[in-house]
Amino acid sequence: MEKTSILFFLCLFAKTSLSAQNWAYLHSDNSPLLSNYITGIAIDADNTIWISAVKDVFHPGECLASIDENGLWTIYSPGNSPLPEGGISALLVDSQNNKWIGTYSGSILQIGQEGSWAVFDTLIPEPIDSRIWDMVEDQSGNIYFTTQEDGLVEFIPATGNWNIYNEDNTPLALNAIGIEVDDENNKWLNRFNDLAKWDSEGNWSVISPPNGGITGIWGFHISNDRAWIGSFRYGTESYLAYFSLSDGAYTVVDTFIHEIWVLNEDADGNIWAGFGPDRRFPTPALGGKIMVSKISPDGNNITHYDYSTHLAPQTDVGILTIDDTEKVWIGTSYGLATLEETTTGASQLADAHYPVSAYPNPAVAESTIQFHLEETSRVSLHLYDAQGNLVKEMLDDERRPPGAYRFPVSLAGLPDGLFFCQLVANGKRQTGRILKMGSGE
């Protein structure tokens, strides 16, 4: 199976806001991403970042992308992999470094340790025809998948067996949008209006917020003895709260103007919250748009992070992951952001790089080379074959202002194989790849 690899570097921006921070922002105009609606982020044992993006109104290209430690991108799409049409809805890396993929159509796929693909649709006892919402691995290495309409799916690697739990074989409806595993290997399912617990003895129970205390649980995370929840808006506010797993006590930590869509935890036990579009914290003194907030383990301190100078004003956060370096990876409806806390608040711009990529890739007859300039530059853009021979010359030492550029390039008459698009801007060189295949030339 052919795949596309592109070398790409992040350009980091630092700014002072409610907390000193570094932001970087990737989207379809400045990276190999085919679209901007990010639906999954996962980090594997090799520190490779896996990202899924689905079609949106402006960008029709769904894809799965990986970025390794050296900044090398690999792009998978329905055209060059077993990925089905319709898009990826969830990602998981398990303890064996397998990459699990759930889709909007209900398909479940896996990329194994050696890069081999497996599609499991025919092995599941009953057809899954609805969205895979979430995935988790328990302490026994079993994998669980929540679905929109088809119950809870279980995979047991030790036996290769697949099971489905629903109203036919459990006392509860198990259509859920989230799932977590606690320290005692109990499974907790977010059923939107309450939490269902499946304990290690096979018993089911339900805990619910107090009447009127919450309308719709969206963000959900288990941490030690607490089940943290973030709500849809109730009246004029949404709630950040938690249940005690030991006694069921319900505590509201704070309120926000709009919904809390995602919760996760860093290595220090801090809880990170991501918000939907146009979030504003109700305290007037804070002001600004709040993209993510960090809550201390005891819930007594909240730090807010402002993104308003970097992202579209109506960007919502649906995915949030923290890597081993404490960098926060944030999936939004308008691209991928990263956040790093800094020790100083001085504004600075890192050395500019000039990433170059191409789409579609692989291509048959035509591809579009795209790149972004951070500053006015003298630019050359050439296409070479695998032997280093110049094939096409799109720009030759031309002065270009800052901005995003796209150059269609015809591949008609060229043989199938690998070509290199080389961009030189102000003396800095960057190279991308175009794979031509399927033309028979």
Write the layout of secondary structure elements.
Elements: E1 4-7, E2 13-15, E3 21-26, E4 37-43, E5 49-54, E6 63-67, E7 72-76, E8 88-93, E9 99-103, E10 108-111, E11 117-119, E12 132-137, E13 143-147, E14 152-156, E15 161-165, E16 178-181, E17 187-190, E18 195-198, E19 204-207, E20 215-223, E21 226-232, E22 238-244, E23 250-256, E24 260-265, E25 271-275, E26 290-295, E27 302-306, E28 317-322, E29 328-332, E30 335-341, E31 348-349, E32 356-359, E33 366-373, E34 377-385, E35 390-400, E36 403-410, E37 417-425, E38 428-436
Antiparallel strand pairs: 1-7, 2-3, 2-31, 3-30, 4-5, 5-6, 6-7, 8-9, 9-10, 10-11, 12-13, 13-14, 14-15, 16-17, 17-18, 18-19, 20-21, 21-22, 22-23, 24-25, 25-26, 26-27, 28-29, 29-30, 32-33, 33-36, 34-35, 34-37, 37-38
Provide a brief overview of the structure:
With 441 residues, this protein is mainly beta. Helix content is 0%, strand content 50%. The model is unreliable at 1-19, 278-288 and 343-354 (pLDDT under 50).
Task: Describe this entry's structure for a reader.
It is a single chain. The chain is an all-beta fold and 441 residues long. The protein has two domains: 4-349, YVTN repeat-like/Quinoprotein amine dehydrogenase (Methylamine Dehydrogenase, Chain H); 356-436, Macroglobulin (MG2) domain (Immunoglobulin-like), CATH 2.60.40.1930. It has strands at 4-7, 13-15, 21-26, 37-43, 49-54, 63-67, 72-76, 88-93, 99-103, 108-111, 117-119, 132-137, 143-147, 152-156, 161-165, 178-181, 187-190, 195-198, 204-207, 215-223, 226-232, 238-244, 250-256, 260-265, 271-275, 290-295, 302-306, 317-322, 328-332, 335-341, 348-349, 356-359, 366-373, 377-385, 390-400, 403-410, 417-425, 428-436. The strands form nine sheets. The protein has a six-stranded antiparallel β-sheet with strand order 28-29-30-3-2-31, with no helix packed on it. A hairpin with a 4-residue loop joins strand 17 and strand 18.
